[in-house]
Every structure is written in C-alpha cells, then in structure tokens.
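Newbie here. two chains, one complex. Structure please?
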Amino acid sequence: MGNIPYKIILSEDEIPKYWYNMKAVMKEKPDPFLHPGTLKPCTADDLKPVFCSDLVDQELNQTDEHIEIPEEVRGFYKMYRPSPLVRAYCLEKALGTPAEIYYKFEGTNTSGSHKLNSAAAQVYYAKKQGLTSLTTETGAGQWGTALSMACAYYNIPLTVYMVKISSEQKPYRKAVIETYGGKVIPSPSTTTEIGKKILAENPGTGGSLGCAISEAIEVALKTDNCRYVLGSVLDHVLLHQSVIGIETKVACEKYDINPDIIIGCVGGGSNFGGLIAPFMGDKIKGKNNIRFIGVEPASCPSLTRGKYAYDFGDTGKTTPLMRMYTLGSGFMPSPNHAGGLRYHGASAVVSKLYHDGYFEACSVEQSKVFEAATLFARCEGTLPAPESSHAIRTAIDEALKCKESGEKKTILFGLTGTGYFDMSAYMSYNSGTMTDYIPTDEDLEKGFSTIPNISL
Amino acid sequence: MGNIPYKIILSEDEIPKYWYNMKAVMKEKPDPFLHPGTLKPCTADDLKPVFCSDLVDQELNQTDEHIEIPEEVRGFYKMYRPSPLVRAYCLEKALGTPAEIYYKFEGTNTSGSHKLNSAAAQVYYAKKQGLTSLTTETGAGQWGTALSMACAYYNIPLTVYMVKISSEQKPYRKAVIETYGGKVIPSPSTTTEIGKKILAENPGTGGSLGCAISEAIEVALKTDNCRYVLGSVLDHVLLHQSVIGIETKVACEKYDINPDIIIGCVGGGSNFGGLIAPFMGDKIKGKNNIRFIGVEPASCPSLTRGKYAYDFGDTGKTTPLMRMYTLGSGFMPSPNHAGGLRYHGASAVVSKLYHDGYFEACSVEQSKVFEAATLFARCEGTLPAPESSHAIRTAIDEALKCKESGEKKTILFGLTGTGYFDMSAYMSYNSGTMTDYIPTDEDLEKGFSTIPNISL
C-alpha cells in the first residue's frame, strides 16, 4: 500500500500558528454587508453590539492573509487536533477505482464535527472581552454541542436556540448540550418577540436556522454584556475553519500528495471555505489548478438554483444584508435530515468565489447520499454525518468516473463529522422509507419573492 | 505544561506486533474450564463446535507470553489505532491536584469503544476458518456495534442477540448495528428454546447478558458453519485487548511516565485485563510495584461481593464452567445504565489475579459515577461512556487523595469509550431523577443459590 499510512496525523507542534484569510488574496472582494436600516455598508460599530469585538475586526479584515491564532486557542486545539488525513484504502478497493481517495476527518472530538474549531476561538474572544453570557442557534445540533463544550471550558453561560424539529428528532443531541451546561430552547419559542411573531404566522412550523438566528440575536441585543455567536456563514467563522485546510495542506506536502479535486459539503459554507482556504489562495495566485466542488442537498440548493443577491441571513430580517447565493430568507426547507445544510443562503466569500468561477457546485439527493454513507461506513469504519455524506457521494461519483476513464486522479474530501445523532435518518434509509424532495420552480419563486430588492 | 503533549499518539509502525498473554507468566494458572456435562477440564475439541478454532487455541494457551498479531489484523488496527494516551491537564487543573492524570482513550473509532480490538481479530479468524455466519450477544451495544463493523469489513453475516432493555433504551445503537449490516434480535426472544423458557419463567424480564449469551450459543450450535463469538470474559478476548496495555506501556516508556496507579472498569474484565496485561506481567516478574484498581458498579459487584467459585457464564447454564468471582448466573442485575458492566461474573484470569492479591477492587454508585462523568466531559471535552466513567470516578477520588496528602502520584486509567448512545442516562442524571441501587444481602443470596456446587 505504498508508504502513505492509513492516517496521517501531524504532531501538536504542527497545529497551525495562523489562520488563512482568503479575502486578502481575492482579486475581487465580496460585496460589503449592508446595514438593514440605512442600506449603507456596515461599520465595525454597527456590528459590535451583536458580535464580540475581536470577531468583528476579523470579519472586516480584507488585508491580512495570515491572522495569528492566540496561544490559548492553540492550547484548546491541542485537546483534539491535528485531525487525521485518512487515505481511504478500503473505499478505493471496494470501488475498484484507480483514483486515490483521501479525507480530512473532523469528527474525532466529542462534539463530533468541525464546528469546534470556531467555537474554541469565538468563546476565547468572548472571555477576553469580559462577556458574561452568549446566545446562539443550532440546527442539526453540531454547533450547539461544540459551543457548549467551549463554553464549559471557558466557563461562560450559553443559551442555544435549537431548530424545533431538530430538538424533537434529536433529544439526545439536546441532552449533550445540556450535559455541557448549555440551556436549550426549541425555536421558534415564546421567549422572543420574533419567535412569537413566527409562531403566530406559522403555528405548526418546525422552525429553521434563519428563525433560530433571529431569536438568538434578539436576546443578545437585549441582555447586558451578552453577544451572539454564529457557527457558519460569516467570514470570521470561515477564517477559523481554515485550520482544516492548512493542516490538510501541510500533510499533503509532507507526503507529496497532490489533490486534483477537493470536495466539501456546503451549508452555510464554513467547512467548505475552511477546507479549501489555503489551496484556493494558491489557485488565485496561479500556483495550482485544483478543481473544487461544493456539494449541497437537492432539497436546499442555494448555490445551484439560488440567486446571487443581497439578502438577510435570518427569517426575521434582522441581520445585515449579505450579497450571497440565496433561496430567500423566507424559503422554508423541507424537513431534510441533513439539518446542517438546511440554510437558505451561503457564505458571502464562498458565494463570491462561486460567482467568479473559482469552483463548481452540484446538488445530490438524500437517498443517494445515504447509499454512499452506508457504503463508506461499511468500508472505512466511520459512520458519517448526513451533511458530510454529501461530499462522500460526490467523491465516490468522481472516483467511479476515474474507474471508467482509467485516470489515476487524487480526490480529497472533507469528512466534517460523525452521524451518531442522526440514526433516525439512517433508520429511515435502512427501512426503505426515505424519500427525496426537490423543490419545484414554484417553491423557489415563493422563496425568491422574499429577497429584498436592493439595487447594486 | 512540561514536554508531555496533550495526546501521545504513536505511529502506525508502533502498533504492537504481538499480543501479551498474562497467563504465560502467572505463577498459579487460572483453574481450567470444566465441561458442563462431564465436569472434566474442557479440551479444544469440546470448545471448537462453539468457537472458532484459532480462538480456542489462544484460549487454552498458557505458555506463550507473546502471540503474534496477524498482519491482516494489524492492517485493520491501522484504521483506528494507535489510540491516544491523553494527559488530563484540564482535569488536573479543575481538581487542583498535584497528581498527574493520564487516560488511554479507546473511543476514537465509530464503534466508540475498545471492543473493536477483539472484534477485528475474532472475525479475521472466522474468515480464515471459512465460516459463513456468526452469532453474538450485546448488552450496552458496544460489542454488537464493533462486531458488526468487523463483519461488514470481512463480509460475514452476523446475528446479534441484544439485551432487550438495552435495545429499547438504545434504539439508535440498534440502528448502528443494522447500518453495518448486522441483524438484531432483542433477547430473550422466541427464536430459541432457551429464550422461550426464560420468557415463560420471567415474562416481563428486560433480559441480561447471560441470557443473550445462551440464545446466541444455541443458534451457533444448530447452524451449519456458524460459530459464536464473545466480546469479553474469555481469555482470548483479554489477549486481544492487551493491545491497549502494550501501546500504553510503549507510550509511557517513550515519555518516561511511571504510573503509580492503573485503574480500569471491570464488567467481564476484558478492558481491565487488556489495559493492565503487560504491566501486570512485569509486576508478576517483580519489575514494578504498580497499584492496580478494578472498578465495578455497586449494583453488580461481582469482585467485591461475589464468590470465587465455578459457575456458568450464561443464564441458560450452557457454557463451560469457569472458576471466577460470580454473583451467580441467576443474578438478575437491576436495569443499571452501565449496561456493559451488568454481568454476573468476571474473567477467570482477572478473577485469579484478584484472588491472589495482585490488584484491588472497589465499587461505586451510579450517581457518583455520573457526577465524575459530567466533570470530566466539561474539562476534557470527551463525553465518556457510563462504563468508562467508573474508572474516572476512582481516578478522581485518587487524585483528590493526592491533593490532601500533597503526593504527586501518576494515575493512569482506561477510558474505554464514548457515551453518545447513553444520553438517556445522562438525561436522568441532569434532571436529578437518577437513583442508585445496591443489592441487599438477600438479593445476593438469591443469586448465590444458583451457583452449582462443584467440589474443588
């Protein structure tokens, strides 16, 4: 099996000392956030009542390619990083492909996903600022889990607005958050004005990320010394997640692995943005010609079927306006099991890169995703999260194309997490009762009608 | 923080090439298994209709201190081993103890526990023998998960008799086994004669490991080319689990760590036996004076309150008789959440070592265990399995003694797995409704009355 081990694990000394800021090298920068009241570009002062100050500075930083990781955060990272870069020898064999397949596996920590990379950083900055509580939202529960772990470590109280349908489908995920000391409130709830309004308009709704975000922001704004923290979409989250890509690049260089294709699932975009960051930086500089593929669910296809427009990040229309690929903040995704990908928009940086042709996107149907997930589990041992399995699906499809063409490509994908808390979805797949859902053009038009009309 | 990293991870080259067989160096050997019909010592021929042939040979091997790990099994181990030896810096700090605390963490594979170490070996030998199906039992579900992973890898059909109460408390654990292709039957069931008999006698029973074992053996015996595999108790399982202890010892030597105390939880005894194996070998040879502590639940106290006697391994009284610490095969443990420790007996090797004074045992109550588990989760990030948390409880207690005495001891414990599938137990603890259960002397007498009267 050559001299590539099954798992390439760097040493703790090789944990990156700097995050990678793609915006610094992008030829055209993403359009600025707009203040929802004035429609003028947001300033740091506009954002600091909602977000931690240091995070706002990172959010707006378009000049520094490398941003130092505080020593305390590197200390936290040492508890679970570097994460392994795994050669999928068994999957390659099962597929009979000449391709080499690698995956960067972010599920070896208890939170079970990459989300901890940004949680560790965000709570550190909150503590540094002297904040006394935080609010957030969670969909599938991975971000809530990661953040509650970080808040337990730094001893800061946390309130999590959890998408109602997820809190019902995943009571044990809720219990994990509570074990780490976080307070969980199913959203929409009656604890906020926006929650009450949404409940009045859609009494039976299972909620959405967009609506949970609105509630968490409302509480942060009306509570002293409290801020809201977000687990995806924003530029500073992508920045923190670049630790994934940097480690991957170091491991590739160490073992002379040259990826032809890099694949990641895209919800808000933080995993994908983090995985590709340093590789994309090189691509922009003309140093490589890697093919990047972002994979999204056919049920919530913001990149492949959305509009590139200014839109709100939340259902309550309280966030700044971001120019991104969006299905409209009023788009209500079907109760697809890949909760972490049920978001109407995508990161502004990822959207801009997509708009400018730096990567491809594709969408895949749920049943095909679970078919790939099950094959992967049986070959590679790891039971993948539904979100991550979107990337597995596309990696397998690319490897099968290599089998047909005889090409020996190197395919690398991000395995963002484990599926321990998604067993009801696996049960549905195992029993043959899983259905696919693809929004009709009419469904999409309904969502698009909620996009504000901002002239560019 | 000195030059000990958070996680000591050996390279794949350092995965042991040999398992360690404690029996070869024990001054007095464990008493032989007895055939349940003849009461004569079991021969290989007695055991081979039930177990894989190579495993029977390992079971009876009392002479070879080192037994080679087949290259194929080392290949499987590379998918998830070496496992990390973690310095619990954050827990030490939270306790304010001068002690150094380390844990060998076996939960980084999808099965979530150490059980995979023996599953990988046992299914390899089954495949080598040309078997076409396997049966087993599972309590908490960790063994069933591990075995279904290994069976998926080697492509051998598997039927799992799962303790009924566990299959009800942990539907998602059942779903994991099914995702890996295993067939799950809640035990006692109507698919076997012994299951029907137990159901007739105890219609409402939640089952037990002992009864699930009886059913799995019955099916193995009446099915062509099928064998039964067991995840604990037996000597060959301890042998495979010695990979835990060997890696730990190599890591300790590499970093000059000298444990004063080594702690493990004891159910059937495979984790504890595997963790201590090479250290105990040295102790028997007079090369160290390590204090070993086996920790069991107060609700199922086979070492601390059981009898050292010949007894059956299963409720149906079909297994060979083993001389071990036992509560009686008829002892019905309360529905304690630490399912993996709900076994009436303990490994013959572990029992003999205990009888001869080579280690200490203690028992701890469930609520104290979850208190320790929650503290550990919040400090160290990893959410521990209830079974593993018994060892955490005792490690913390020893570290607190060091705090009082000012001694800077080195405490090492086995963290056998994660608690992702035990969230209902955590929910019970979080909500304050968890109760403790300690069997009365009368309860124990009832169990003891089922121990056969074998003169020694």
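Moderator note: The radius of gyration of chain A is 20 Å. Chain A touches chain B through 42 residues (CB under 8 Å). Thread marked as resolved.
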